């Protein structure tokens, strides 16, 4: 569905006004002035019905320098009241209540969409421009076809206008959480957690931490779905259930980045578990004469595992762990270390052999 808007021919330049959110330092306008004088205004500026500037501050400054009295504009209705108030501010004193981070992100998404529309959606203007019209005449406008790219610049400009900072990465991350919270296709738990993370951000919480936690929550939802799917083999269901249980144990203690890595690894493990059904496994055991080849996880899974384990010795106190483990837990730990050392020796040998010149 297209956004509400229309081309208005011969709008009086003096009737167009801009709030303080539009930058006042336009940089070097000489080349833009020359381009407009030579070719006309290729992309109309965007305004609200009452003449408030939305997009095109540099173009407006250029045509004013040229002394144009009228100009073709794209009149855009339907913007939110809050965004309209933000763009209409004339000084800092008019903003009585600071915006929350999520409110900033909502306005950023709306303004970014308007700026993309301004940059790429102006073909309709060509219907109102006569081929005989002199593009250099005051108010004459032609419309260039949509240009590819430029989204990075659009995000930067939208972020600066809303927050005064080039903070679009954080705003994009908040937008991702907002989309998840409103997406009916998402599991209820993911939507709930997304809403909780948004509340946490407004309370001063880390946006990066929220991103890690919501991705872990998405992985946990995927594990729950695998564990509860009767169409999956028992090996996948059991591995997924074990992974989900382990993640829930660590949710309140693990660092967000670690939790996300563990969640991704748990999903990989579950999906790579045996895909044979119990009846097939029993039949295979009866027919087996020799040991079946082992199914190894991919290298990427190994990298995920050791990325998570690379600093594990810094996070635990050996003088606390030693006496705290039960006999069975200690034996399991020693066996794991012994097997790890043996694996290291074999892997090092294979690595050195590959490096030897032929």
TrEMBL record:
A GO biological-process term: positive regulation of sporulation resulting in formation of a cellular spore
Sequence segments annotated as region (Disordered): 122-151
Location of the ParB-like N-terminal domain: 9-93
SMART domains registered for this protein in UniProt: ParB
Organism domain of life: Bacteria
One GO cellular component term noted in the UniProt record for this chain: chromosome
Pfam families per record: ParB_N
Protein name per the record: ParB-like N-terminal domain-containing protein
């Amino acid at each position: 569905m297209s956004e509400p808007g229309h081309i208005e021919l011969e709008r009086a330049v003096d009737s167009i006004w801009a709030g303080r959110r539009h930058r006042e330092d336009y940089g070097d306008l000489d080349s833009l002035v020359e381009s407009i004088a030579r070719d006309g205004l290729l992309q109309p500026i965007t305004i609200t019905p009452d003449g408030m500037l939305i997009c095109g501050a540099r173009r407006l400054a250029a045509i004013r320098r040229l002394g144009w009295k009228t100009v073709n504009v794209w009149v855009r209705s339907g913007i939110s009241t809050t965004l309209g108030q933000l763009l209409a501010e004339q000084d800092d004193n008019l903003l009585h209540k600071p915006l929350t981070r999520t409110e900033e992100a909502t306005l950023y998404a709306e303004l970014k969409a308007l700026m993309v529309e301004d940059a790429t959606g102006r073909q309709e203007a060509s219907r109102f421009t006569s081929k005989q019209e002199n593009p250099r005449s005051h108010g004459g406008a032609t419309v260039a076809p949509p240009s590819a790219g430029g989204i990075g610049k659009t995000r930067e400009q939208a972020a600066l206008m809303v927050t005064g900072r080039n903070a679009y990465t954080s705003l994009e991350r908040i937008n991702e959480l907002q989309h998840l919270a409103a997406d009916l296709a998402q599991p209820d738990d993911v939507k709930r957690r997304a809403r909780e993370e948004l509340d946490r951000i407004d309370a001063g919480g880390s946006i990066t931490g929220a991103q890690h936690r919501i991705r872990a929550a998405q992985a946990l939802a995927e594990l729950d779905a695998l564990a509860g799917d009767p169409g999956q083999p028992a090996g996948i269901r059991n591995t997924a259930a074990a992974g989900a249980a382990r993640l829930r144990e660590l949710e309140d203690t693990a660092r967000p980045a670690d939790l996300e890595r563990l969640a991704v690894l748990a999903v990989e493990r579950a999906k790579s578990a045996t895909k044979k059904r119990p009846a097939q496994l029993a039949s295979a055991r009866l027919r087996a004469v020799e040991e079946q080849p082992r199914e190894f996880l991919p290298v990427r899974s190994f990298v995920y595992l050791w990325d998570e384990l690379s600093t594990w010795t810094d996070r635990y106190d050996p003088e606390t762990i030693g006496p705290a483990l039960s006999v069975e837990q200690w034996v399991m730990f020693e066996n794991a270390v012994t097997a790890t050392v043996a694996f290291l020796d074999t892997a090092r040998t294979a690595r050195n052999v590959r490096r030897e010149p032929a």
